Amino acid sequence: MTYFTPEHHQACRPVTGSGVYPARAEALGRLVHLQQRLANRLRVANFDLHPFHAGPIVGSVSDRQAHALSVQFMRAVGPALTVERLMGREGIASVQQIVVQHHPSLELRLQPDHFVVELIVPSEAWWDQQNISGKLRVQRQRLAFFSLLQSLDADFCLGFWQGAHLSELHLEVRHLQKTDILHEWLSTFEPSKDHFRLGRWYGVATLPEATIEAEVLRAARGLYAVYEAILWTSENNYREAHLQAISQLSPDKD
Q1: How far is CA 43 from CA 20, 55, 231, in A?
Q2: What are the DSSP calls for the chain, one per residue?
């Protein structure tokens, strides 16, 4: 028996008519339960990823209008508040004010055509996006990041598109083994405009109930290594390299 059935996938489409939609409620319950199970495993592994306080959302952090149900893991509350204040939200004071789109997140997403485990850095998370851009401008860090991506499973999908569905404009890790291709691809990334994303896409009703937790954990482990590499912290701060590069490109510069 698969954990998510074809009916669960189809239940992600917009609800029509009135009354309760049992398959949708069941799908949401299973997604939340999977998040809870994964949270326990991440805690044991000492991963600094925490369930988003507001619970599941309809849609995705990359598209709130998407026909999908999703749950997210993100940085802890204290660092999240710090980052949002640095982004200009000086008055933010409580967990209820945190905006998940302002941070990199690990998303578990159920949609009509796939179940997805994906690391997403939305365009609204520009503070961390600038950190990615800056890190890729430092040769030693860039090469280390390339090696990290190339070490992932071959079917992980990388791209910069917006929306919940898999874009044709993506590359699988199997196609990134040549460093020059990877460098050319990542050089097109534009902070504050693109959605940096990396994840694994599973077909409809393909994950057995007995093994889904282990499979999702395996995918999350690979993504967590990338998450740690790109997440802005005071010890992992490469924004200045990005800002210096932008300053040099400014038409006002003499």
Answers
A1: 35, 18, 18
A2: -BSS-HHHHHTTSPP-SSS--HHHHHHHHHHHHHHHHHHHHHHHTT---EE-TT--EESBTTBTTSS-EEEEEES-HHHHHHHHHHTT-TT--SGGG--GGGS-EEEEEEETTEEEEEEEE-TT-HHHHHHHHHHHTSHHHHHHHHHHHHTS-TT-EEE---SSSPPSSEEEGGG--SHHHHHHHHTT--TTTS-EEEEEEE-TT-SBTTTHHHHHHHHHHHHHHHHHHHS--SSS--HHHHHHHHHHH-TT--
Digit-coded pLDDT (tens) for 30-62: 999 999 999 999 999 999 999 998 889 999 999
Q: Are the C-beta atoms of residues 11 and 27 closer than 8 Å to each other?
A: yes
Q: CA nearest 36: which of 11, 22, 23, 55?
A: 55
Distance CA 2, CA 62 (A): 27
Closest by alpha carbon to 93, among 102, 105, 80, 81? 81
Per-residue pLDDT tens for 131-146?
A: 999 999 999 999 999 9
> How far, in Å, CA of 129 to CA of 252, rounded?
24
Distance separating alpha carbons of residues 108 and 80, to the nearest angstrom = 20
> pTM of the entire structure?
0.94
Q: 6-13+22-249: what fold?
A: BirA Bifunctional Protein; domain 2 (3.30.930)
pLDDT of residue 180: 87
Extents of the domains making up the chain: 6-13+22-249
